[in-house]
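anyone seen this seq b4? input:
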Amino acid sequence: MNPLKKLFKQTAIYGLATVLPRMLSFILVPVYTTVMAPGLYGEVSVIFAWFAIFNVFLAYGMETAFFRFYNKVDDKGAVVSTSLISISATTGLFLLTALLFENSLANLLEISPEYIKYVILILTLDALVIIPFAWLRANERPARYAIIKILNVAINLALNLFFLLLLPKMVQSNPDGMFSWMYRPDFEISYIFISMLIPSAITFLLMLPLYLKNSYSFDKTLWRNMMKYAWPVLIAGVAFTINEVFDRILLERLLDPSVAEAKVGMYSACYKLGVFMTLFATAFRMGIEPFFFSHSGTENPQKAYAQITNYFVVLGSVILLTVVVFADVLKELFVRDEAYWEAMDIVPLIVLASFFLGIYHNLSVWYKVTDKTRYGAYISVTGAIITIGINFAFIPVIGYMASAIATVLAYGSMMVLSYYFGKVHYPVPYNFRKIIFYLGISILFSGLSFYVFDRNLLVGSALLLLFLGLVYKMENDTLRRIFLKQKS
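predicted toks r here
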């Protein structure tokens, strides 16, 4: 089968595993913003930011290292066994230490002690399934991967809807009913974490067979080589997470305490409207990462890499303009409480930042397939420095707009740096003119629609149709060749 056609099929399935569950969970945005005031939602958002940061440390680059060595060495069983033992040992150490010092951890992170145990247990369970999920992807089993991921988020969604919406109504209508024992007023945040903990436990049980059938032989030499490969990925992951979520923590600590959590809640809710670009970029990355590694040894893989990036930019440009044009429609659907709409001006910036990040992930193939992952660390650290610097300097002046601007500049810088270093170390024949054309036109039309014409839906729709016409005229023949081509 045409490798590009196979890639798009796998990306579609991984997209189902990523986009559909996240779209289901996206339903929780109107739920959360309905049952919680911006201040309370801001508190939840800060805790979620800490989740993201700890997830990176608990994975410490082993997922990427697993992919690389699983495709690189002959003894794949040794890679699986060594990876599982490593992750299990570090996760167990985290669990023991965190439970022993949970009060100190809660104080350090400024998380209420009543929530910290939930956080520890969820982080532990999620860390233990990192390698099993990577094994499914490496062995091209996207269907099983998709089913488990969808089940996880479907259960999470169902429990959230039950605890936050259905249970209060049931208890209100029948205070002595059979469910009254599990209802507690002002318990929304704990209900959210319970709704996360249960599906995480179920997911771990479903992935347990890989642990049970493993031979558990630990190859020290292999592990050292994997860690040498993984540590720059860890640094890059920490830096990336700072770019992604640390702004919530900084907003909470740098803004006036009387309004900080409310502002974080507004920012976080409107930030969610950028999820459509994030979903597209994530689904694409889930499909291309195994493809990049498995095809790195084929003849002239750079040509395929260039084609993939071109298609990503074309589709991403359409998504960017579509989300910006229909931003006011989306806010009515997903962020229904007008108390949150104050932060809508960040939406085009966040969508554009997510687009830049997606392009960066496509461009980053060069340092992964050449084992120069330290460059990923350098680039991500540069982005993190930009993020922290701009946030510290300008949050006290312009509030959450500083965070949005910092996100765009950080990811934009990372994209440019990756292209520059890649051109030196692993040249890929990207169609630079076409990429700049689509990127520039979509940004121009987005800015005109949102800021100049003040989100006028008729003007925005006309610009979108014009852009789609340009895409059709320029890409119709190419896309037909990909999707209609039979087995080669």
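The radius of gyration is 23 Å. The mean pLDDT is 87. kinda curious what u guys think
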